[in-house]
Amino acid sequence: MFYSFIRYVVAGIVWLINGRYKLLGTDKLPEGNYILVGPHRTWWEPLFFALAGRPRKFSFMAKKELFKNPILRWILVHANAFSVDRDHPGPSAIKTPVKNLKKTELSLIMFPSGSRHSEEMKGGALMIAKLSGAPLVPIVYQGPVKFSGLFKRKNVTMAFGDPIYVDKRVKINEETTAELGDNLQTAFDKLDDEIDPDWVYVDPNPKKKTEIK
């Protein structure tokens, strides 16, 4: 109930400050739950991705620090967020989304690189897809990457790619994780070209970029 309400609120705010967003490739979305994955370019992307996937509802990962504030924690929990320790992720980082994908009507929004300042793909997306049986659906965001840009009504465009299914028999290791990372990056590049081949993402905070292993 709260999730549906807050999504309507967010949709109204987005329309007021930035106008209508554009979606490409909606016909590629599969039936049933899926894992929406994209390169992490802004902190507000999860909001836009949740709007793009309507009417399907989503859960998403949020760093544990955000749950320290009781008011914000209440909002996050009721918006289907779950806490993840980025420095020391425990089993729940995999078990919780897998359970949601298999036993509820919640799909998942996640960013395989984990950080807005890292381009390295992690194995979490591969493991969750394997255990849940849900496909990975690539998505890219093209639009303002600075919050002030949203108010200039530089409209946002998002594009969905073809679902990527992970065989449950695949072994999770450096090779398969790297292969998935290459496949996802290829999909992201293709979607970016479809929207605007001249668009280039520039990290607004390049000094924060770190290598995450």
UniProtKB/TrEMBL annotation:
Keywords: Acyltransferase, Transferase. Pfam families: Acyltransferase. SMART domains: PlsC (SM00563). One of its GO terms (molecular function) is acyltransferase activity. InterPro entries: Plipid/glycerol_acylTrfase (IPR002123). Residues 34-144 form the Phospholipid/glycerol acyltransferase domain. This is 1-acyl-sn-glycerol-3-phosphate acyltransferase. It comes from Weissella thailandensis.
